[in-house]
Amino acid sequence: MSKYQRTRFTPTSMSFGMGTWAGCRYESTAHAIEKRDGGKDRGGLIGNSGRFSYLALSFQLSPPAEVASRSYKMIIVLKPTATPEDADQILRQIEALGLKPLHLPGTERVVLGALGDERILGKLHLEAHPAVESLKPILAPYKLVSRSMHPHDTVVNIGDVPIGGDRFVVIAGPCAVESLEQMQDTAIAVKNAGAACLRGGAYKPRTSPYSFQGLGLAGLKILRDLSKSMNMPVITEAVEVGDLEIVEEHASAIQIGARNMQNFRLLKSLGKCRKPILLKRGMASTIDDLLLAAEYIVSEGNPNVVLCERGIRTFETATRSTLDLSVVPYIKQRSHLPIIVDPSHGTGIRDLVEPMTLAAAACGADGVIIEVHRNPAEALSDGPQSLYPEQFARLMQKLRPFVEAAGRTL
User: Most C-beta atoms within 10 A of its C-beta, which of 144, 262, 315, 327?
Assistant: First the structure.
């Protein structure tokens, strides 16, 4: 066993394997190498988010200070005695320098925000303003969705159903809209069991081009009519920018699936929508990726975003995905946005939906979205993970004590 010691150095330029980076800071970290296969070391060159590892040495790349300082975010906490005129004056100062001002009135204090170049922000000398109590930089890459910027939980209303408050919300329905009768039967079943919102896909992004792709506009009309007749908000997916206007006309909320979580043009367009957005985590996305995707939507003007953990793809093959419930409390600490869990896609196995739903309630999720079909054996999409109506009804009965133990209502 050979060991390398941890070292630090700061060259002005360095060439390592793939090229030269000038003016950047490098940090090398030692790891142990175990001799195997007749004394040969196993190693290789691996890149991941600016980290390069070769054999036992890893180098972490940080950008030069002058580059990192160009984008800066700061919250400005005003004193309790500050007046609306004080806030307006500071906001005008921020905007006059070409920066983006933010007004975040709270119940106890007024908080302002400034987004832009740190060097320009420094010219304001806001720390000397008589109405300013403190200045706090926002260090996370996401700003508007950060709890540092907005300390109180956001409640998003889908129709008349609030998500993010004291209520644990259950959204249920089939993966895809197949017919009026199929949707009607399922909608009646899930509503009678206690579901607050109805789900169903009119447009279905499928891995295979030969799989059922959804009914499109006809499916949207079915969802709209059922929403009105049953007084139940409906959630359905939009898969491209061209769909947004018509989906917004027919649905109570717009779902963005895992495959589109980093479709940035689509995310920007969602920021201009009037309807709430249910944003699912991508199959290979980090938590920061998810929060930055939400930042795209909020920064364009739509603050009504609900996050959704739906499982990530790992080396595990026993389940469809690996449902990462640790995301829920982690995001609760770092973001004010509500987050729900999708145990259907998160496991892909009908028998696992119930225990993971109970676990979601226990770990602090704001709700769940569950696939239910009147007859999963005949489902055109996701039958193996869809619950039978009687299974869903039993789940709702078992769920109540878990929700109440978490301090919520069902």
Answer: 144
